[in-house]
Design brief:
The protein is α/β, with parallel strands linked by helices. It has ten helices and seven strands. The chain is globular. The two termini are about 35 Å apart. Bound molecules: S-adenosylmethionine. The site of S-adenosylmethionine has 18 residues, from helix 1.
Length: about 270
């Protein structure tokens, strides 16, 4: 097996393992991660970006597939608005989705080989999945999303932006991080971010038309979280990060309407078939 292939295989196992281990964390530890001002901001910002794009299509008769749905962060609030399908390669996540979203069909499978017939879905969504795939796998996954969406349908993909401040932080971590590195280390074997133009090229290759990109979340929240600055601030007073992220939210809607959107932490791409 070639080195790249080996890494890709290893990535599948290690990514799944990290996610599975995450699910096994005791509730109090999960609370420490999710009950923070920075997570609330990031979650809200990503959700708003996707929700705003989906809103025009709300229709109980339309089929929506979430590829790499995780624990249903996006599916659960969409219950009743689409006929929902969630695909993931983590069975424990799929069980979690089913617990909270009874009408959602959960499917165990791989993003690079979607177990659905062609032209089946009206909308395909995928949030924060493709960074766990190598560039070649990313193209395969995007090709597959194109295959399963109906003509006239839409595919929305959200991924980390390689043009963001977070990517600089990641590159520092991935280079020879000194032993005394006091901040959170990078644990993913493959963590592929994309620039808006790179994603556009991938969508074009897959066959999409009417392609456009937007962004969401300003760069700092992730960096503040990874450098543990935000948890330090929260310890002093929760009001400080809450105020700060409140400002970020307001600034974000302005940034989105400018070319600076290309530097936001996440890139969101929409393609039509
Ligand atoms: C960062 S999580 C995002 C989950 C969810 N979309 C969200 O935004 O909350 C990535 C998800 O993709 C799944 N995943 C990663 N690689 C996958 C693959 N090749 N095929 C299917 N699912 C995959 C993981 O199990 C995990 O649930």
């Amino acid at each position: 097996m070639g080195n790249r292939r080996y890494l890709e295989e290893l990535n599948k196992d290690s990514t799944r393992e990290i996610f599975e281990s995450f699910k096994k964390l005791p509730a109090n530890q999960l609370k420490l991660i999710y009950n923070t001002a920075d997570w609330a901001y990031i979650n809200h910002s990503e959700f708003k970006a996707v929700y705003d794009l989906l809103r025009p299509y709300f229709n109980k008769k339309l089929r929506l597939l979430d590829v790499g749905c995780g624990d249903g962060r996006f599916l659960i609030p969409l219950e009743g608005k689409f006929r929902l399908y969630g695909l993931d390669f983590s069975k424990s996540f799929l069980r979690e989705v089913k617990k909270h979203c009874k009408s959602c069909r959960t499917i165990f499978g791989h993003a690079e080989k979607l177990p659905f017939k062609s032209d089946y879905f009206d909308v395909v969504l995928s949030v924060r999945l493709i960074q766990h795939l190598s560039k070649k796998q990313q193209q395969n996954a995007i090709d597959e999303m194109y295959r399963v969406v109906k003509p006239g349908g839409k595919v929305i993909v959200l991924n980390y932006n390689s043009m963001s401040a977070l990517n600089i932080y990641k590159k520092i971590c991935q280079s020879k991080t000194p032993k005394f590195w006091p901040f959170i280390k990078w644990r993913w074997v493959i963590d592929e971010y994309n620039s808006p133009s790179e994603l556009k090229a991938m969508f074009k290759r897959a066959g999409f038309n009417r392609i456009r990109t937007t962004g969401c979340t300003l760069g700092e929240p992730d960096v503040l979280r990874l450098t543990k600055i935000s948890s330090f601030l929260e310890k002093i007073s929760r009001k400080i990060p809450l105020k700060y992220y409140g400002l970020c939210e307001r600034l974000e809607s302005y940034v989105k309407s400018t070319p600076l959107a290309n530097l936001m932490n996440r890139v969101v791409i929409i393609g039509g078939k």
